[in-house]
Amino acid sequence: MTPTREFSWLHFSELRMGSNARGGPEPADFFRAVAADVVRLQSAVGKIDAVFLSGNLGSTGGIQGYSELRRRLSDLWNALQSLGSCPVLLPVPGRDDACGVALAPPELEAGWLGDEEARTQFFSSPNHVFRRALSETFRPYTTWVDDWRSSCQEASAPVWRRGLLPGEFSARLDGGQLRVGVLGLNTVFLDLRGRARRHCAVLEPEQVLSVCAGDVTTWMSGCDVCVLLTSDGVGRIREDSRNRLLGEEVFSSNLCCTFAQVM
User: Fold this and answer.
1) pLDDT, tens digit, for every residue of 27-49?
2) With left for phi above 0 and alpha for psi between -120 and 50, is residue 77 left, alpha or beta?
3) Average pLDDT for 55-66
4) How do beta strands 225-229 and 179-184 pair?
5) Pairing status of strand 50-54 against strand 9-12
6) Domain boundaries, the chain
C-alpha cells in the first residue's frame, strides 16, 4: 500500500503589526493563543512544514512593525520547534507593507489596459523609474524577509529564486514525502491606494516566468503540488491582467490555487 504523503501548514494574513488601532487582540496574546492551538492540534496534524503569510503584515510598512513581527514569530517558532516542527516561513507583501506610496506614473497605469510596450518596458528594465520607486517603498519589508531567511531558516531553507518585483519568490520544499512548489507574487504594485476598489490587483505572465527561470513547465515538473500565494484573491485581479495570464495555457492549467482570498 502506498504511504500517505502529507504537507501541513499554518496560514495568517492581515496581522498589521505596529498598528495603534488593531481592533483585535494584542500581538502577544494572539501569538500565545496560536501556540496553544498548535500544541492541541499537534497530535492531529503532525509536524508543521510551512507558515504562509499573505500580506498586510505591518501597518505602515515601517521598521517598527516588522521588528515586532519578528519577535512574535520567533516565539511561535520556538513553540513549533519544541514540538518537533521546523517550518519554512513563506510571506508575500500586501498594500500595508508599503512604506509610503509609490505612485505608478499616470501613463503607465492608464496604458496597462492596452499598451503592451509600456508593460514590456516596465518588466524588462530594472532601472525603470517605477521599479526603483517600488524597491524603496517595500525596502523595510524585503529587509525583514532577508534577515529572517539568513538567520532563522538555515536548517530548513528551501531552494529560493527571487522574482522581478519586491517580495516575489519561488520556493521548492522537499520534506521527503511531498515536493511542494510555492510561487509568491506581488499583486499590489500597480495601485497601492486601491483598497476600496474591487479590481485593482495585477498579476502578469512576466512575474510568473521570472520566478520560474523562464520555464514554468520545467519548474513545475519538479513538484508534486504547486501553490500560488498572493495577497489579493482572484476576484480583485484586473480583468485585462487576468486574461493575459489565462491566455497562457500552461498558467491556466497549472496555477489554479490562490491561497489568500483577501477582498
Assistant:
1) 667 777 877 887 777 767 778 88
2) alpha
3) 78
4) parallel
5) parallel
6) 9-254
Q: Where are the alpha helices (DSSP H) in 83-225?
A: 106-111, 116-124, 129-137, 139-152, 205-211, 216-221
CB 61 within 8 A of CB 137: yes
* SS3 (DSSP) at 238: coil
Q: Give the span between the Cα atoms of 170 and 34, in whole angstroms.
A: 27
Neighbours of 213 (CB within 10 A): 11
56, with CB counted inside 10 A (0-12, 13-18, 19+), is: buried
**Residue located via cell numbers 521527503:** 176
What is the C-alpha separation between 89 and 145, in angstroms, rounded?
A: 9
**Which set of grid coordinates corresponds to residue 19?**
498598528
Instruction: Supply the pTM of this predicted model.
Output: 0.85
CA–CA separation, 19 vs 229, rounded Å?
24
